[in-house]
Amino acid sequence: MSEIKKLQKIFGRKAFVRATDVEDPEDYTWYRTSEGEEIGIDLDTLSIDSEKLLEVFLTPLSERPIQEDERQQAWYELLYNNRTPDSNHDFEPGRFLHFSIRSQDVEHELFVEAFQNMLSEKVVPVWKDRYTGVFVEPTSETYASIDQLVKLLDSIESDFYMKSYLFIGSTFTDLTEAKQQFDKESSFYKCIADHPQSKRIHTLSSVFPMVLLHQSKQEDTRYIYEKILSHVEPDLLKTVNTLLDCNLNHTLAAKKLFIHRNSLQYRMEKFTDLTGLDPKTFEDAVTIYLLLSMEE
Q1: What is the domain range of residue 248?
Q2: Is residue 46 pLDDT above 70, yes or no?
Q3: What is the pTM of this model?
Q4: In this predicted model, what pLDDT tens digit does every residue of 219-265 receive, in sequence order?
Q5: Which alpha helices (DSSP H) does the chain contain, by range?
Q6: Largest separation between any pair of C-alpha atoms in the chain
Q7: How many domains are contained in the chain?
Q8: Nearest-CA neighbor of 85 among 170, 171, 179?
Q9: Which of 160, 188, 213 is the last residue before a domain boundary?
Q10: Could you please report the per-residue DSSP string of 260-281?
């Protein structure tokens, strides 16, 4: 029996989590077991005596990587503590790359090095906690494309076993704009966490539907979903979702689903009969996409 399972048996299953199991790692205090596994603990579920007992068996982990230079400290104070630095610390216009890591163990230096090797050594990593933060990327004539960033995340996952996600912000020109933009983009990024997606990278345009759903009354969107899609079988919803992910390319969607193109067409006709929505029309495709996003 693993150490985390032993702890869950003693203190309860809800008290201990792995980094891969939670959307908000900042809500937990993190420790390393004798087996080298990182686990998070919701201290609200434990007594003070239990917390002291745990420290005998577990090694506390710092909330954030502690090796920081002046630039990192200045950005951290501005972004997370709303304290404007006395000087600009070689401030440059740029953009934020918000990141989160879903891994049981994080090699912070390797993660940062991979981004700096691809983007620029000037990229400043600012950690909010052990698993989330932003890269401050100076303005460039040729920012890395989404495809390049996807390949980078895939490489990090295959080489270092760290699965990560990005939200690409827009550019800012001064510190005041940077702080305002960071706060707004952080709220957008939380919308993604509230509606987990298959995409590894998001932008302002791709997060827009999630923002709409997040700001809508839950009872209203749930009512519409129930009336339109609740009676559609899961496999059929998966088929429609795959078609949308393939930008309505029936040939590509059929390949991904391992079915014949005619079978895909039959399923789409069945979906239309059940819901009255036709994915081939722009308005219906948008409605279907938003409704399916509620369930992802």
Answers
A1: 217-293
A2: no
A3: 0.73
A4: 888 899 999 999 999 999 999 999 999 999 999 999 999 999 999 99
A5: 3-11, 48-57, 70-81, 108-118, 146-160, 175-194, 204-215, 218-228, 234-245, 250-257, 261-275, 282-293
A6: 66
A7: 3
A8: 179
A9: 213
A10: -HHHHHHHHHHHHHHHS--TTS
